Known about the structure:
It is built from seven helices and 13 strands. By secondary structure, it is α/β, with parallel strands linked by helices. The chain folds into three domains: about 5-50, no CATH class; about 55-215, P-loop containing nucleotide triphosphate hydrolases (Rossmann fold, 3-Layer(aba) Sandwich), CATH 3.40.50; about 230-290, Ribonucleotide Reductase Protein R1, domain 1. The strands form three sheets. Strands 10-9-8-11-13-12 form a six-stranded mixed β-sheet, sandwiched between helices.
Amino acid sequence: MLRVAGPLAEVADASGTRQVRLAPRLPGGPPVAGDRVRVDGAGSQGIVRAILPRRTVLERIGSAGRVRAVVANADVLIVVAAVAEPPLAPRLIDRYSVAAAVGGLDLAVVLTKHDRPHDAEAVAQVVARQRAAGHPVLVGSALDAGLVEQVRALIGDRVAALAGHSGVGKSTLTTALTGVPRATRAVSGGPGSGRHTTTDPRLIPMPGGGAVVDTAGVRSFWLPPMGPADVATGFPEIVDAATRCRFPDCRHMGDADCAVPATVDPERLASYRALVAAAESASRFARGHD
């Protein structure tokens, strides 16, 4: 599935692309870009009758407080973040890292607007922390052909979902990678804020192989309910250090004889603990509304 727009969807098969309808109350729905589906009927008379099992999925809490899929069956989540305008938000990257790990996606980070005035030390710290966690990090300008080619090489023949704040250059990168124009706007709406440019995530093939899903820009990204072990999957260095904790069920939240604080970057540990507290709060809220 390439795109979903209300009751309609654009799908691709051996015969090409076509627009079809979604069956009402589709089991496992609503479908999202990247889903593999069963379509009954030819041409524009086709109807999506089933969503096939998802290999990977990126999920978040939606505006109604329900878990919703953002993209399905992608191989890698590329978090695009600006070093300035809007300001760099390291903990947003961490939240995406957890969502990617839980959903079965690899993670990479692309830092854009490096040609703008920015806090070089803060950027260097983010780069070091993410690379120490094993995540590829690229730095440059979304308008720079060199960075575009680095991102293309990073994706290869995989399907990549681009995510992050509004106004960081996701649509600009998508257009450069695929040759398909995507709407772009300057950052506006107040100091440090971005304006949404993409509202309809769409899977777009890249010339020569691979594909990109340009997801809608966000102001925040809330994780679904989960436990400390799930949160930790987004922090590989914590998972590694946890093998040396005295107790196997250590939550690394100030537990006795926890080995994590001695080896993990303090900011990353603080980010992990904040996400555990938020996830457990979301879990309690969800149980209270069952």
